[in-house]
Amino acid sequence: MTIKKKIKLIGQYSYFIWLIFLIFSTVLVTYFYDLNKKNQINYLNRSLKNIYLNSSLKRITSELKPRYIYIEHKVKEGDTYESIINNLNIQKKEKKLFLNSVTNNKNINILKLNQKIFFKIDKKNNTKIVNFTIEIDKKKNIFFEKIDNDETFVSKIIEKNLTKTIAFQEGIIKSSLYNAALKLGIKPNTIVEFARLYGFQIDFQRDIWKNDSFQIIYEEFKNEDGSVVEVGNIIYANLNTQNTDLQLYKFEYEKNKIDYFDESGKSIRKTLMKTPINGARLSSSFGKRKHPILGFTKMHTGTDFAAPKGTPIMASGHGIVVKSSWCGGGGNCVKIKHNSSYQTVYAHLSKFGRGIKKGVRVKQGQIIGYVGSTGLSTGPHLHYEVIENGRKINSQKLKLPSGKILKGNLRKKFEVNKIKIDVLKSELISKIN
Ligand SMILES: [Zn+2]
Fold first, then answer.
1. Which of 321, 316, 312 is nearest to 302 (CA)?
2. CA angle, 169 as apex, 167 and 170 as ends, to 5°?
């Protein structure tokens, strides 16, 4: 074969040769790429197992957990600075430091209901308080901060720059008090307070009828741009059920102590509440309310309040917890002894209130548990019983002695206060019309 012929032959097979070359190089490239990838993975694995990297990863993730926590406490009946601070998980030394700082300060030595306390807690190493703020009133706070290597707190008063306004609203109840009030722009806290005040004499699930109406005068606190940031006290309230007015007047009967009285100076407080539950949350279905417990209807010895699971339940009067445990058909039960003649029972609770144990003393209005459906129950509700001299009685027909009546000088003061509120009311009404 001549050279020419050989070249011609190669030329004939050149496509074939190129194809083989291409396949070969593709295999080669893929192989090296894989090898490289395996090496990279190996390297990464080795690095991840590296103890130093591991420890720094741990440090990074632990730093991602918040170091500071913020706690807001709203003062409840029966609270003391001691009970509040003992609820925080901090060192003994810190608790003492807190108590020393607050008890010596005349601005805040008396705790007021609904007063707010804010804590900033440092969780790193030994848990301690960084600073705390106590509300003096709606316009002023007192701020405490640590100095001298955490050995003392210094305080300063901070103006909140809020303006107080008085609001008046009236509405008609179509589905529930809560919805009617919310539609008018009343803040939930005010609605809950309204229901709590009437909870002494009204059963919110049975005594409220469609087209019943209410009026309310209350304080609001607005910031510079005019939005409501906080609500204050209810000054006056009226609940009209079945054409009967139930009026409440706010009155400061002692310095820093307020309560509500009807137009004849009678306190609305009673030994026991008719609605020992957050009444605002109850949906009143106006008469056609179905019985939550099947089969119990015949010998039903209490009152049922159908309410969403988790709705707070209050002690209906002062007393001592005599039972806080499982009681069979009643599920989780709390029983309170109020005095020698009255006891109350709360059944089907989803859980017990904080610190609610046998032998513990409770105040009226204190949260003792939450609505649930434990035991013999077909849906979340509170089963409430009143026992009078050992006999179960109808809590809703119970005639309790009326609260204390203002007398003498205090009564005169109340009458003046009442006139002022009535004048305020007519002024507010004339502004709307
Ligand atoms: Zn029941």
1. 316
2. 160
From ligand 1's centre to the CA of 390, what distance in Å?
Answer: 18
The CATH superfamily holding the domain 281-397 is: Glucose Permease (Domain IIA) (2.70.70.10)
Compute the distance from residue 281 Cα to the ligand 1 centre, in Å. 18
pLDDT digits (tens, 9 = 90+) for 211-269: 999 999 999 998 888 888 888 899 999 999 989 999 999 999 988 788 999 999 999 98
* Closest alpha carbon to 134 in 153, 151, 152: 153
Residue 308 CA, ligand 1 centroid: distance in Å:
15
How large is the angle between the packed helices 3-49 and 51-64, nearest 10 degrees?
Answer: 60
Environment class of 418 (CB within 10 Å of its CB; exposed 0-12, middle 13-18, buried 19+): buried
**What CA–CA distance (Å, rounded) separates 374 from 156?**
49
Q: What is the pLDDT of residues 160-217, one digit of tens each?
A: 888 889 999 999 998 888 889 999 999 988 999 999 999 998 988 888 888 999 999 9
Annotation: CATH topology of 162-270+402-433: Nuclear Transport Factor 2; Chain: A, (3.10.450)
Q: 220, 214, 163, 162: which is closest to 190 by C-alpha?
A: 220
| Per-residue tokens: 347 | 């059944």
Ligand 1 centre distance from Cα of residue 245 (Å): 30
318 C-alpha to center of ligand 1: Å?
A: 22
Quote the CA–CA distance of 412 and 250 in Å, as a whole number: 15
Of 250, 155, 233, residue with least CA distance to 193: 233
* Cα dihedral sign, 355-357-363-367: positive
Enumerate the CATH 2.70.70.10 domain ranges in the chain, comma separated: 281-397
The domain defined by 68-159 folds into: Nuclear Transport Factor 2; Chain: A, (3.10.450)
**CA neighbor of 364 nearest in space, from 218, 200, 208:** 200
CA of 269 to the centre of ligand 1 (A): 25
The answer, as to whether pTM is greater than 0.70, is no
3-state class percentages of the chain: helix first, strand second, coil last, to nearest 5: 30, 35, 40
